[in-house]
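User: My collaborator sent over this chain with a note saying "see what the structure looks like." That's all I know about it. Can you take a look?
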Amino acid sequence: MKYLLTTVNDTFKRVSMHGVREELVQSQADSIGIPLLTVRVFEATNDEYERKMEVVLLQAKSEGIEHVIFGDIFLEDLRAYRERNLAKVGMVGEFPLWKIDTKQLINDFVALQFKTILCCTNDGYLGEYWVGQEINPTFIERLPANVDPCGENGEYHTFCYDGPIFKKKINFTKGEKVYKALDFKTDIDITLLPEVITKGFWFCDLIP
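Assistant: Without extra context I'll predict from the sequence alone. Here is the result:
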């Protein structure tokens, strides 16, 4: 493996959707020992993402890289989207976790002694309490029945800071919890929407 690939919102210097500071992701790459390849976006639109990603992928291809590895598990439409974009630049996607049972995956992850924390939660599934929680056997046991154990439907996002592939643990402190509501264009009172409808996201600021 030649690079670790991520997308950063260059306005805020944070990983898109996760809200993790770029410095922490760089620390991950340094500890793992694989250089970081960053796609920088500003507008946070699909069109911009695809254009900027294509530039970075073509750069990688010019160095002889033909395959891109993703951690997707079962979302067919997301896999198809990735494969369509890769086909435009003549590259192939690899999905080593595809269709593996997510309960098995999360239990194996914990058993291997990876350490990770929830940095973002979708409030349609998990509220303020959950953001900033560590993934461990107790966390897995207490997850609501409608939440995928690996958060594969976007129920939560994480930051992994230690484990067998890390040369050293990534040190950070937990900062404030911030709620960001979605910009609903509707006359409906969003507090009346069913819980499984996403109204916004909770973020826990992780400070290097």
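A starting point for your reply to your collaborator: The beta strands are 4-9, 14-15, 36-41, 67-69, 92-94, 115-122, 156-162, 173-181, 200-207.
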